[in-house]
Amino acid sequence: MVARMKRMSFEQRLLVVSVISFLLGGCLGKLWCLLLVPCGKRSVRIPYGAVVDGNSSIHLAGFQVTMMLLPVNRGQHFNSLPRNPEVERYLGEKPCECAGRSLKDYFASDDWTLKQRQRDNNLRRFNRRRLDPPDVHTRADGLSPVSYPAHGVVVRPLRAVLLQGVRVEWFEVDDYFRGTVFEVQFTGKRGVFTVLANIEDVSIVGDNTDNMFIRTTKPTHLNQQLQKVVYRNTEFNANIYDFVEMRYMGFTATIPIHIQHRQLPWLYEPEKGKIGDRLTVVVTASGHYDHLRRLVKSIEQYYPKTTVIVADDNPADVWKSYQVRNVKYYRMPPNKGYFAGLNLGISQVATEYVLIVDDDQYFTKKTKLRDLVSMLDHTNYHLVGGSVETPGHTLGSTYRILGNSTHACVESQRQVYHEIPGYQGCYAADRVDSFFLASTADIRVVGFDPHPAQARTGRQGRGMEEFFVAALGRLRIAVCRQVTIGQDSGGTRGQQLAAGDSDGTGGQQLAAGLDLEDWHNLLRNNLTCRGQFSS
Length: 535
Hints:
Blueprint: H1 2-7, H2 10-35, E1 45-47, E2 50-52, E3 58-60, H3 85-88, H4 109-129, E4 146-147, E5 153-155, E6 160-162, E7 167-168, E8 170-172, H5 173-178, E9 182-187, E10 191-195, E11 203-205, E12 211-216, H6 219-226, E13 229-233, E14 239-248, E15 251-260, E16 279-285, H7 289-302, E17 308-312, E18 327-331, H8 338-347, E19 353-356, E20 361-362, H9 369-378, E21 383-388, E22 396-403, E23 408-413, E24 426-429, E25 431-432, E26 436-439, H10 440-446, H11 463-470, E27 477-487, H12 493-498, H13 505-524, E28 529-534
Parallel strand pairs: 5-15, 16-17, 16-19, 17-18, 21-27, 23-28
Antiparallel strand pairs: 1-8, 2-3, 4-7, 6-13, 9-12, 9-14, 10-13, 11-12, 14-15, 19-26, 20-27, 21-26, 22-23, 22-25, 24-27
């Protein structure tokens, strides 16, 4: 063999070496395929944008092949690795630990069974009306052959939207050369599909139906047609999602389409420069009219001509007429409660901002409302509070909803989150413990619960806490340490009950009122009990 090779010319020897190298390379390639790469399919996936020339050579326009990607081994043995406890304690939500009585402790056994059934029915009605965007999520499989919008597609009811960003990313080269028909399917439940324009050599089946097919033998034409796909809503709903499914080559992609009316803003008359023109003060009268007069006088001293709205539900034996300049006075039916009074007062506000104060508080030179207005003007916060000049008064609190849908509670901590950039001394929080300024339109959406269970305790009870719990996830709340207000001693309705007489019945009335309020709030918020409180 060697002697024969020596007698060959250089060109002949080169040919023999080339043939042997080709055969050896083919054998090694086959061995590689059998050992490492699943070779059940003899096709190649061609990304959209690749160049396929007449000799069947394949390359990406402007790129060179530098590596081969292998499928990832999804071995289960990694699941047994030890977890980092410092990281794991932040995952999910920690269980609820009750502090005090549970809701069921307020009922007899038979009554509790009935109350549970009523509460479950009420919860189902609430959930049917609820739309929570975080509940809408999509998942994209690895090596997906399509690109699509996973979020942000919005259409007005009974209108249409162009599905931008839909395209095929790769196809099978064997199918391309065999002239196989490439098919993309769109399905939906609350609308139909059509196309803005027709591309040549593309077939549309099911046009203007909720199940449309796009078919062609040319991937380039397929992508051009996909750029023209239109979704049209046909089932009216003011605020809901339709989950459109797009299928191609056995893959399914979900495109969430938000069907929603356009929401209009609530704007107010242009401000005139004075703080008093930007806000209205709302206060409920507790029966201590000397305190109320001091509050109104202090407002007039530091912010002249500011409108004050007073809601008074005092009974006839306590009530006194109160008519002062710049004060709008509303007499309510007796004993309707602190929060019913706040609702009445806020309903009469015509300015962009509303300031909620108690009648035992009063303005000082440190009550810098301009700072609070500036923060609401220039940040995305809805409510900002101040603090009380009394030593030891807390600044704010944070809340956490713990547990699950069947056993949940609220945990409270006397702390704030972080200082707000650009506003030294102001911190993000979930609750403020004193007076506060809020966007009128936004605070109306949350509102105060006027239920009679909270009428007996007023601000001394948990009603104000329940307002801030109801505001979780709805209002962004901040509190500023340097903006303070003065406060008289006594005067609130809860303190009147506690000190109402010498035989202790006032304290018993307050305790009974707190029990009734506790029961109502647990039932209203679908909570099992109250969580831990830490200072």
